[in-house]
Design goal:
With 188 residues, this protein is of the alpha/beta class. It has helices at residues 16-21, 37-40, 47-57, 63-73, 86-98, 116-129, 143-146, 167-174, 178-185, and strands spanning 4-6, 13-15, 30-33, 104-108, 135-139, 152-157, 160-166. It is elongated. Helix 6 links the parallel strand 4 and strand 5 (135-139). It contains 9 helices and 7 strands; from the N terminus they run E-E-H-E-H-H-H-H-E-H-E-H-E-E-H-H.
């Protein structure tokens, strides 16, 4: 793949060389949440066993933070992953990612496919649990739901950068919300 990590959908393209320049060369420094990761979780494990597994695998995993998030989200620690609803499995996945003390969080559609109340809860979980010394990259089509937490925006289409700007500068320059600009750029 020629020294690059690539997410195909209207998403994110990060060159490994760019990560090296940022001092983020190791994948172990990043935490990724993607739609397909639910399938990668060991289905026979309980949520608690999964926390232990992650703790063994990642040196930066904060088990205490994970347990607190599980309690706040109402996750049953002894329930097997395969017995959980899709929404609950997604919450477990979010807990695993946000319990890392990563330098870079890559969150692909973290609020896709959930109801508005759950979206708010997920965004609050992200904002209140990420490493403050880290960068958080959120790939989403639900711009209106994340607009109030955006510092910078980048619009990508099939691997091509269409627009990159500070969210505040974009609003001031265009005289409209980031969501409105997004809808114009990607109008069918």
């Amino acid at each position: 793949m020629n020294n690059e990590m690539k997410f195909e959908k209207n998403g994110l393209l990060i060159l490994n060389s760019a990560l090296e320049e940022l001092g983020l060369a190791g994948i172990s420094l990043s935490a990724w949440l993607g739609q397909d990761h639910i399938l990668l979780m060991p289905q026979e494990m309980t949520a608690l066993q999964l926390l232990a597994f992650f703790g063994d695998f990642y040196d930066d995993f904060d088990r205490g933070a994970a347990v607190q998030m599980m309690q706040r989200l109402g996750i049953q620690p002894k329930q097997q992953i395969k017995q959980m609803s899709k929404g609950t499995r997604e919450k477990v996945q979010l807990i695993l990612v946000m319990s890392r003390k990563a330098k870079l969080y890559l969150l692909d559609e973290p609020i896709g496919g959930v109801d508005p109340a759950t979206r708010d809860f997920i965004l609050n979980t992200i904002i209140s649990n990420y490493n403050p010394e880290a960068a958080v990259v959120i790939s989403t089509h639900l711009i209106a739901d994340v607009e109030n937490i955006l510092d910078d925006v980048a619009f990508l289409n099939r691997g091509h950068l269409l627009l990159q700007s500070s969210a505040d500068e974009l609003r001031a320059r265009e005289g409209k919300s980031v969501d409105a600009v997004f809808r114009e750029v990607f109008r069918c």
